[in-house]
Amino acid sequence: MEKKPFVTLEQVKEIAKTYPTPFHIYDEKGIRENAEKLKKAFSWNKGFREYFAVKATPNPFLINILKEYGFGVDCSSMTELVMAEKMGFGSDQMTDGIMFSSNATPAEEFVYARKLGAIINLDDFTMVDFLEKTAGLPEKVCCRYNPGGEFKISTTIMDNPGDAKYGMTKDQMIEAYKILMSKGVKEFGIHAFLASNTVTNEYYPTLARELFELAVELKEKTGANITFINLSGGIGIPYTPDKEPNDIMVIGEGVKKVFDEVLVPTGLGDVALYTELGRFMMGPYGALVTQAIHEKHIYKEYIGCDACAANLMRPAMYGAYHHITVLGKENEPCDHKYDVTGSLCENNDKFAIDRMLPKIDMGDYLFIHDTGAHGFAMGYNYNGKLRSAELLLKEDGSVQMIRRAETISDYLATFDFCDIFKGVE
Q1: pTM strictly above 0.85
Q2: What is the CATH number of domain 9-23+284-405?
Q3: Is 345 a catalytic residue?
Q4: What angle do CA 284, 288, 292 make, to 5 degrees?
Q5: Which fold has domain 28-280?
Q6: Cα 258 from Cα 245, distance rounded (Å)
Q7: Exactly one of 75, 143, 305, 345 is catalytic; which is it?
């Protein structure tokens, strides 16, 4: 099985005349189609809204595409809050346009989130008192839940929430609601993220049942006015070509079934559902394009690229698989075994290990799939490497630069207080 790139060799050759490799490129058509599907899948819930996880792909050009569909943003830091405000997601322009989901949060970030009218998602019980003292309590507050133990679908362990640093216990949720109510909070939300990058249509319905049952219990024990439940992220993408992608329509129907079973009979049928998808929204619609510039023949066969882990960290950090297409050789046999590497002074700087690919010649372009989320965003400057440009393949086939490549002067910009590097371009 083979993943199909959304650009051809001819297109890349033309793009590279203006924007040298490496670069990240995104598929506008795919992003828009996916946004439409998500809206349709949850159209049965009148309050539904997606809060795109800015951390996944913090590019305002891409986020503004999602804004056209009425989506908000989920922010986790001061920088992301500032970006959201500049893009018009604050309360002056979009009511409840920002969800602020942070942890170990500095006081000034709560103050700024309050200024923007963001929905604050409290990660810890101690943050109730901290928020009140530093920024004051808003009338609407969300609390993040951690059930502990293992999160299972049937008998399959999906993740271990008990090992995660996020969220409150059930008893802490109940106590937090009571305290917040006594201090004037009028609307409540529930949030939980219990498993990452799941490739199964059962994850959201299973998570939804747990959160819906919690909502019923919280309402019974506190009398709180629960107006929304945030299913967060966790819907993943198939990085390997042998897996079937999630079907968001099936997922939406599965959540509706649980909603009708659990919430509607208990008078919570007006609860709005929120999602906080990052990888699912953007992952498959981005790619890292790099050129083969060196080959090495020692104990293994190596192909050296002009990209490195500074452009895509996931393989080096997690051993994550990203499929690679050698553009122009899609129909040739994968009969050569390579380690595909970058030029960092780190031995884990490899996009693929023992990967069977067509014969790669110097100058070939490699299309590294599924980098649209947690790709460019995780970039860094080790070895003085510079982050690449980001490009948007528009629906009409044209290409727009949506972030320029870094320069050496960008890298040295934090020395602008002294004269050492003046004049460096």
Answers
A1: yes
A2: 2.40.37.10
A3: yes
A4: 140
A5: TIM Barrel (3.20.20)
A6: 22
A7: 345
